[in-house]
Amino acid sequence: MRLITAQNYRKAEFDKRLRYETNPVKKVTDELREVAVDMLEYMYSLNAIGLAANQVGLKIRLCVIDPAFMHGTKLPVVMFNPEYIEHGERMYTSPEGCLSLPDLGLEVPRFRNVKVRFTGLDNKEYIIKDDNSLLASVIQHEIDHLDGILMYDRVVEEVKVQFKDTIIRRER
């Protein structure tokens, strides 16, 4: 697996590789289970707590998360076809980083409450409901990736992003 990062690609190529909506998975096969496990191992090797399939060049709607890894515990969640069932109206700002934008740390507004449906490794449907924790932020961050949205699209302050060929500034 190779991580897609702003430093390794020109802006146009970076956008082409990350700014699209991923394709739903019809059925979780043994091959897809293997891909998910590989993504988890890769995520852990990068000391990260979330990874979306399109960040490693896959066009499928799959992400892996493990916020507990920040605290030295492994409690991984593999989500095929995650989708919001509901979210609260209240927002909060959360500090975030992104593997694809390694030199950028931002305060990102997120919903306090989320309820998400997804398919697990066993092809069964699951629902996660979270109120105001790191888990809610990580889920929203990874679903954004799967929808072609980057964390700097969500912020209100000025953002400077370094790509291989250019630096972009987004002012609000």
Question: Could you describe the 3D structure shown?
Answer:
The protein has 172 residues and is of the alpha+beta class. The chain has a single domain, classed as Peptide deformylase (Peptide Deformylase, Alpha-Beta Complex), CATH 3.90.45. Helices cover 22% and strands 31% of the residues. The chain contains 3 helices and 9 strands, in the order H-H-E-E-E-E-E-E-E-H-E-E. It has a 5-stranded antiparallel beta sheet. It is globular, with a radius of gyration of 15 Å.
Return the CATH architecture. Alpha-Beta Complex
Shape: globular
Q: How far do the termini sit from each other?
A: 35 Å
What is the average per-residue confidence, as pLDDT, rounded to a whole number?
91
- Give the C-alpha Rg: 15 Å
CATH classification, class level: Alpha Beta
| Helix/strand class | alpha+beta
- The total number of structural domains is 1
Query: Which consecutive residue ranges, at least 5 long each, have pLDDT under 50?
Result: none
- This entry's quaternary arrangement is single chain
CATH topology: Peptide Deformylase
Fourth-tier CATH superfamily name: Peptide deformylase
Instruction: Work out the number of β strands.
Output: 9
Percent in helix: 10-25%
Strand content: 25-35%
**SSE pattern, N- to C-terminal:** HHEEEEEEEHEE
Query: Reading side by side through the largest sheet, how are the strands ordered?
Result: 1-2-3-6-7
Question: How many helix segments?
Answer: 3
Largest sheet, in brief, is: 5 strands, antiparallel
